Amino acid sequence: MQGAGTALRELLVSAQRRGCLTAGVYESAKLMNVDPDNVAFCVLAADQEDEGDIALQIHFTLIQAFCCENDIDIVRVNDVAKLAAIVGPSEDSGEPRDLHCILITNPNEEGWKDPALEKLNLFCEESRNVNDWVPTITLPE
């Protein structure tokens, strides 16, 4: 599990550097609607207090269904603050951004293979083999 957390951190940093990271529930939904084939990985994040947010839980359910339908690997993270420390504020405005849903898209570069993404794909596949369709990953400190 800890190896998956480290791989997720590496993937988020790499994707942000390459411009392949979309953050926000609404932004992610728009992207999945327009170009689902370009989405490589999905992260849903919620803190303890978010568990009571019915609207957010409905969005999560719809996103999870879409990801399963389109063979997009998906994980959950239960610490939005750690996620914010990794991806930081919006590059455009410097404002904190909605990190409840993050999509990693395929870069335009041909042949780009991220070893962290491959590790996470394997982790998700192993989780599905034990009927854990949306595994929870703990991010390292």
Automatic annotation (TrEMBL):
UniProt-listed GO biological process terms: apoptotic process; cell differentiation; positive regulation of MAPK cascade; regulation of cell cycle
Known partners and oligomeric status: Undergoes concentration-dependent homodimerization, which is required for growth inhibititory activity and enhances interaction with PCNA. Interacts with GADD45GIP1. Interacts with PCNA.
Taxonomic source organism: Vidua macroura
Function: Involved in the regulation of growth and apoptosis. Mediates activation of stress-responsive MTK1/MEKK4 MAPKKK.
Statement: the UniProt record of this protein carries the keyword DNA-binding: no
The Ribosomal protein eL8/eL30/eS12/Gadd45 domain, residue ranges: 7-89
InterPro entries for this protein: GADD45, Ribosomal_eL30-like_sf, Ribosomal_eL8/eL30/eS12/Gad45
Superkingdom as given in the UniProt entry: Eukaryota
Gene3D superfamilies: 3.30.1330.30
Designated name of the protein: Growth arrest and DNA damage-inducible protein GADD45 gamma
Recorded family membership: Belongs to the GADD45 family.
GO-annotated cellular components: cytoplasm; nucleus
Keywords: Apoptosis, Developmental protein, Differentiation
Keyword check for Lipid metabolism: no
